[in-house]
Amino acid sequence: MAADKSGWVVGKVLAEQARSRGDAPFIRFEDGPMHSFAEAHLLSNRAGNGYAALGVGFGDNVAVMLNNRLEYLWSWFGLSRIGGVLVGINTALKGTFLTHVLSNTKARIGLFEPEYLPWLVEIEDTIPDMEVVYVPGGVYDAGNLPPFKRIQVRNFDDIMAGGEAEIPSADDISYRDIGMIMFTSGTTGPSKGALMPHGHLYLFGHCMQVHLGMTTEDHYYIPMPLFHAQGILMQLYATLITGGSAVLVRQFRATTWIDDIRKHKATLANLLGVMNDFVLRQEVKETDTDNNLRMVCAVPVTEETMQALRSRFAIPKFNEIFGMTECNLPVCRPLGAPEEAGCSGKVWDEYFEVIIADPDTDEEVATGEVGEILVRPKEPYCFMQGYNGMPERTVETWRNFWFHTGDAGRMDERGYVWYIDRIKDTIRRRGENISSFEVEAVFLDHEAIAECAAVAVKAEEGGEDEVLICIILEKGADTPKPEDLLDYATPRMPYFAVPRYIDYVTEIPTTPTAKIQKNKLRERGLSASAWDRDVAGYKVKR
Asked: Are the CB atoms for 473 and 450 separated by under 8 Å?
């Protein structure tokens, strides 16, 4: 039987929680006041009425380029009550990247941090649809605005003066309607705006609610950016659906991560990618184990990293989940499943189908073999509805009636799915598939290494893929000889995964969510400073 999705709209969820939970605590920003469900609902009505007074209606896009702050939420909640669509913009975008997002969505109204307004000035002539930009009241300074030629800049308080009256049209918004456009970072070509219906958004939060066993007693620590599905859907929306509470902070800070969690008495937290290593590299304190955490969702994580986090911070339980902006969270670890690092869990078969397929043929591979993770939904509108204004990319991604994640994985005989790497980040050498994540994990355990990234590069002879490891050293650390690094790494990894090239660098490109931009390293290729073990005559022991 199909699920009853009639209430799967964020504005409706908030209204129901305001009725049932009322004055119960819901959300605060850092050390600010706690807002109850009832207060958040009234603020969402004010935002919705304010946007409606500006002519924003069903299907209209509103561009939001804010740091984490509560105005982001009031806008999202309010827009959902009038049928508007929130376009969350990565706060690192500028120039042609920002032009692309705004041109693609044709937003005429924006909500921006003042620090990003100069970037708008620079591209004003290329975004003719943009008419007016609002700035949060607390940071709005009419006497210190950049010199726009055409775009007007106003105080967001004007929108929040829209009145707290209930919005009659809110009941007409459906789970089938688009509620958000979220742009994927992509590795080639312009970023793609995923059209996300309300049913799709809801299932992100519901998945976390189910697989983390969330209750009204949980308090989520949210440092992830709200333009990312982790922050706004997997953490914030999950909290709203559950009726729990959360603290939102401006950004992830490894230096204060556990201190913030202790101060806010958080029971749940997420770690993504290199955030695991950043947290573990902080100075050990006697108070590290003094916290209320009951579970951390760490994606991805090695056995060594998981055990280090567990012992360092006394974390009782870990979870891993596999998903993407476009296809939701189709693979989840059940609460009672064994904690096996690198295992994402089982297919959430109530809502999704998943197979592991040959990326060239889309034919399912044998159990245990590595292939591409392909997904399709069982419920309508629980998946993205395509890429905004990019029908050809939509068709390409949906080849043979399966959504192609671009991720490599395998499914074991128990039905558990193991994430391996991005297909493009999976290095194939001498007929063997090599996970860049696993290569990096070995080197990150070396005391002299602060950060690293492994990518495939073409050797100067033969044109076959070889492994390059780019390394940032710890401050004050002596530069180890490349041979010594390989002596350290070789016993800890398969011989075929040992890097041929080592390059000491001062910077590794990352996104604002701390994901390493492997495409930029691959495009750069081998630099003149890269050490070549073949030239040096270093022989890898099998």
From this structure: yes
Q: Compute the distance between CA of residue 355 and CA of residue 411 in angstroms, rounded to an integer.
A: 8
Does 52 share its domain with 184?
yes
55 with 186, same domain: the answer is: yes
Helix residue ranges per DSSP H, 67-195: 70-82, 95-105, 117-123
Indicate whether 462 belongs to any domain: yes
Q: Is residue 173 part of a domain?
A: yes
Determine contact, residues 140/115, Cβ cutoff 8 Å.
no
Residue 238 and residue 244: Cα distance in Å, rounded?
9
Residues of the domain holding 338: 320-423
Phi, psi of 505 (to 5 degrees): -125, 165
| pLDDT tens for each residue of 294-303 | 999 999 888 9
Q: 263 in a domain, yes or no? A: no
Three state DSSP letters for 290-352 = CCCCCEEEEECCCHHHHHHHHHHHCCCCEECEEEECCCEEEEECCCCCCCCCCEEEEECCCCE
With beta carbons less than 8 A apart as the criterion, state whether 113 and 66 touch.
yes
523 Cβ contact partners less than 8 Å away, ≥ 6 residues apart? none
Span 488-505, mean pLDDT?
Answer: 90
> Residue 463's pLDDT band (boundaries 50, 70, 90)?
low
The sign of the CA dihedral 355, 358, 361, 363 is negative
Amino acid at 462: G
- Evaluate whether residue 243 is within a structural domain: no
Domain boundary among 423, 456, 483: 423
pLDDT band at 187 (very low <50, low <70, confident <90, very high): very low
The number of domains in the chain is 3
Residue 263: CB partners within 8 Å, gap ≥ 6?
none
Q: Please tell me whether residues 34 and 177 are part of one structural domain.
A: yes
Q: Are 373 and 471 part of one and the same domain?
A: no
